[in-house]
Task: structure prediction
Amino acid sequence: MSRSLRLLPVVLLALVIAALVWRLAHPEDTTIRSRLAGKPVPEFALPPAVPGKLGLASADLAKGGPRLLNVFASWCVPCIAEARVLDQIKGKGVAIDAIAIRDRPEDVAAFLAAHGDPFDRIGSDDNSRVQLALGSAGVPESFVVDGRGFIRYQHVGPIEPADVPTILAQLEEAK
Amino acid sequence: MRRPTQTVLVACLSLLVSAPALADSSLPPAQWANRQLPDPRQEARARALMEELRCLVCQGQSIADSDAELAGDMRHLVRTRIAAGDNPRAIRAWLVERYGDWISYRPPSEPIGWPLWGAPLVLLLLGALLVRRRIKPRRP
Result:
């Protein structure tokens, strides 16, 4: 056997180790993104999540200008931090609708009373059916929907103050 | 000073009383999350599909194995659609359309998945060749 061939296993091992080290240094992005970006919002109609406020249907998202669709829950801790940022976005004249995931009316009402209510409509999604239809994998998530009801942009996780310019730019682009 | 076993015991007990960091909703599991369909044939089809769908929360588990609430809601979705007469293939396609091939544990039968399907055959062939060479009777 030639000398170079005998070294082959060592070279292979070195390559495997190099691949492992590279993966450790550059972990895979485990964010789950919806494949529906660029496609219309799937058809749905959700009952109101709190008394005295309108529920949300896909038809509501297909009229008027671009809107922000926020998927949240009263039991979701990062949503509390996000509420303040949503208020700020609302202050810029953005229309925001929401879907409350697996929530009770009294809990949603308490959440809105404590952390502010920037929402025009809130639909109640008791068994995450609409969340799954949207390709969303958790709370909070937000979608920029244009005036024709097409999803233009998805934000996974809470919207931080640093994300606001991107969200506003996407809303502007959706006009 | 405490003995080590005592410390371990205290640590274990404190794990029991600590609240889980993952927030869960206060709603009960969806109707068909943990309940079998009355028709055993439908339940078997639902079960087979649930074992091949990835949980969105604990990404290494199938929705059949996961205790996450979203996995329960996905089981509810699968069972209600099977009970309504939906084809498992259509349900899988519906989810793949939203989350990509990633959601299904069954590799896609598209060109990118061909090496995966072909590898066992190639290995089997190589093995057969190796065996044939080894057990060939030697000429005297």
